[in-house]
Amino acid sequence: MRKRLYILKSIVKIIALSSLLIFKACYSYASENIQEVDDYKEWTIKFNKPIDKYSIYNNIFVKDSKGNVLTNPRYTILDNGQVVKLKYFNNKYITGEIYTLKITNYIKDLKGRSLGYSKFVKFKVKSILNYESEYIDINQCTQQIPIIGQSKLLAKNMAEYVLKHNKNPELSINIYDLANIFLEEGKHEGVRGDIAFCQSIKETGFFRYGGQVLPEQNNYAGIGAINNSKVGKGAWFKSPREGVRAQIQHLKAYATKEKLNNMCIDPRYNLLKEKGVLGIAPNWQNLNGKWAVPGKNYGEDIIAIYKRIEKIK
User: Fold this and answer.
1) What per-residue confidence (pLDDT) applies to 264?
2) How far apart are the first and last CA of the chain?
3) DSSP letters spanning 134-168
4) Spatial distance between the Cα atoms of 189 and 35, rounded to a whole number of angstroms
5) Of the chain's two ends, which shows fewer C-beta atoms within 10 Å, N or C?
């Protein structure tokens, strides 16, 4: 009996050890070594095979020490889906805070197969790289600025500010021409086209995209793109001018009950009209929680970009 019990215990031990060996490769641990990075760190994730680009959203992200997921990540997909670059803009990080970059095993290859295991990387932000010439305290951007009004910025300065941060904006048009279109379309509807351009900088990450909107959509403000929806589900426009016009019209819908001067091409204008919310956000800061959800400091971030361009001589 004792011999049989000894044999049984030995078998159980063997099974237990085998399980550890079998499943060990499926575990992934966060590195105890915490990297130190600056706030403009761009993470590069390489895969051994092309992945389904639609599966990366919500599956590659950064969390703070309290478990909160940082919003508005900017993804760039390279090498036919074998390389993904991740970056956050607008000072999402806090100096000294410990964050975790997570790549989950819900990411799939082109055949629908999931990754073998998740990956975690802990890091600490050592410095916030606010260039002195561009530094704007977000608290200076709370003074209400109307959406309706005349533009003040020069198209040249608007375009060059983008090129300073992104030498190759993903556009089907010259960035200088796009800036001019914003000023022209804004003038037609009485909307601040220069600040609308700043909104597009925020929405697209200096026209890098990588979120839920594709460059070829000519959708510079995420119109129709809802949180957690598939990439490309937002509005599509035939040309850059149509995309800008729709954005200007959508802004006018939020800012005032006045009728549009041009034919309506904003696909969501009538929806706002039916809901009786025309004119609900006369100022840029009023867009918080309306244009963007949850949208904390959404309008202030836009005004901060505007003030940076305003400082260009």
Assistant:
1) 97
2) 93
3) T---GGGG-S--BSBS---S-HHHHHHHHHHH-SS
4) 49
5) C
Of 104, 127, 150, which closes a domain?
A: 127
- The rounded distance, in Å, linking the Cα atoms of 179 and 159 is 6
Minimal CA–CA distance to 70: which of 106, 44, 46, 102?
Answer: 102
The pLDDT of 84-93, averaged and rounded, is 72
| CA-closest candidate to residue 241, choices 269, 264, 219, 211 | 219
123 and 158 in a single domain? The answer is no
Peptide bond into 215 cis (omega under 30): no
199 inside domain = yes
Using the predicted structure, report yes or no on whether residue 41 has a pLDDT greater than 80: no
Is 74 domain-assigned? yes
Position with higher pLDDT, 75 vs 214: 214
Tokens of 204: 């697209």
Report pLDDT for 27.
Answer: 32
- Helices 193-204, 155-165: axis angle to 10 degrees equals 10
Has residue 14 been placed in a domain? Answer: no
Beta carbons within 8 Å of 163's beta carbon, 6+ residues apart:
169, 175
Q: Angle at CA 105, nearest 5°, toward 231 and 117?
A: 155
- Write the CB contacts of 286 (distance below 8 Å, at least 6 apart in sequence): 144, 254, 280, 299
Query: Within 10 Å of residue 28's Cβ, how many Cβ atoms?
Result: 15
**Binning pLDDT at 50, 70 and 90, where does residue 223 land?**
very high
| Residues 301 and 209 reside in one and the same domain | yes
Reduced to 3 states, what is the DSSP secondary structure of residue 269?
Answer: helix
| Cα–Cα distance measured from residue 264 to residue 63, given in angstroms and rounded to the nearest whole number | 41
Longest dimension (CA), the chain: 95
Q: What is the pLDDT of residues 91-121, one digit of tens each?
A: 567 777 888 999 998 888 888 888 777 888 8
